[in-house]
Design brief:
This protein has ten helices and 14 strands. It is of the alpha/beta class. It has a six-stranded parallel β-sheet with strand order 2-1-3-4-5-14, with helices on both faces. A six-stranded mixed β-sheet has the order 7-10-11-6-12-13, with helices on one face. Helix 1 crosses helix 9 and helix 4 runs parallel beside helix 5.
Length: 354
């Protein structure tokens, strides 16, 4: 069976998603939405960096793409600073009967216990009204801290604690808005960026903790957050900007699932703009890795290294996009509603072996 897909946005993740859609023989690209006139009218192949034209031209006309009634919209538009608009976009697709696979908003990967029912119900209602499904995922939050750790837990006799970590040097991560506006790199250490405002970390990554708890049948008493930051002693050049000496250049945060006064589940990020910063914090294997540690019987430690042409940051973006594309057939065939990783069957890189 062939599934007709519209790619929604061609930014950091979207352009890699386009490449992945074209590579899948079970998928047919039928439309591409772009946010501005500078990309409108260009072939999808050009936007994705492919040599062979697809014949599909990008457009800013959202209504025309919805009118195509594709089987699925792959939504990778930036949502961190436009949450209400992004959620409305998703609901519009669902009400129209279009399935959606999305990289954002990240808290929708498992909103139960994190969002109140009045925030979840309109999305579920829209999905049921249109007979469509929504699945939000990626690599983190995503398969690096849902399927990956859950696979390892199946080899345990006893589990005392699980720690899922992203340990990365972001010096090559080409997304200035995320780096500087959302994460606060290059800012004064006494200023709180969007990501570190009260409750934001537990909103975004608390879903990871809640999903692991649900999968492992763990009753949590609470989910907490903490963070610390380190400044750079000398100026750094990152994503086309200068990060001045004395400004924030390393961030470590944790979201913890607590049970009976004990930490049982941890989601941790250790992000540096230079490998020499914060030497006492956890260090990656290679230049960057996703780490799963399970304390119990037996104890496991799994380090997932990644790179694309030597660039681990680019590899992470490709991994985000490809994971979403891989899931399209399963999401289209799933029951209507808001899906989580716990609802999907095993999805693989079917047809990608060259």
């Amino acid at each position: 069976m062939t599934y007709r897909v519209v790619q929604w946005s061609t930014g950091n993740v979207g352009r890699w998603a386009l490449r992945s859609i074209v590579a899948r023989r079970e998928l047919e690209l039928v439309g591409v939405w772009v946010s501005g006139p500078e990309k409108a009218g260009r072939d999808a192949a050009e936007l994705a960096g492919l040599d062979e034209p697809t014949g599909i031209l990008a457009t800013t006309d959202a209504d025309a793409l919805i009118a195509l009634r594709p089987d699925c919209v792959l939504y990778t538009a930036m949502a961190d600073d436009r949450l209400a608009e992004a959620v409305e976009d998703l609901q519009t697709f669902l009400r129209t009967g279009i399935n959606v696979v999305s990289s954002s908003p990240v808290f929708l990967q498992f909103p139960y216990g994190t969002l109140p029912p009045e925030a979840i119900d309109p999305i579920v209602d829209a999905a049921r009204a249109g007979g469509a499904s929504l699945w939000v995922n990626g690599i983190d939050p995503g398969w690096a801290n849902d399927w990956l750790p859950l696979l390892v837990t199946s080899g345990c006799e006893r589990i005392d604690r699980i720690v899922c970590s992203e340990i990365m040097d972001y010096c090559t991560y080409d997304n200035p808005k995320v780096l500087f506006d959302i994460m606060g790199f290059g800012g004064a250490p006494d200023e709180l960026p969007m990501l570190l405002q009260p409750g934001v970390l537990t909103l975004a990554w608390g879903s990871v903790i809640r999903q692991l708890a649900a999968a492992l049948d763990v009753e949590l008493d609470s989910v907490t957050q903490n963070f610390e930051r380190i400044t750079t002693p000398e100026a750094l050049r990152v994503a086309g900007r200068t990060v001045a000496a004395g400004t924030t250049a390393a961030l470590r945060f944790q979201i913890r699932g607590m049970r009976a006064g004990r930490t049982v589940l941890v989601l941790e990020h250790v992000t540096r703009l230079h490998p020499d910063l914060a030497p006492d914090w956890p260090q990656p294997t290679g230049k960057g890795c996703y780490r799963v540690e399970i304390e119990g019987e037996p104890t496991y430690r799994l380090d997932l290294q990644l790179h694309s042409g030597g660039d681990h940051a680019r590899a992470g973006v490709i991994g985000t996009a490809a994971r979403l594309v891989s899931a399209i057939p399963a999401v289209v065939e799933a029951r209507p509603g808001l899906l989580t990783a716990l609802d999907l069957p095993l999805t693989t890189g079917r047809g990608l072996v060259s």
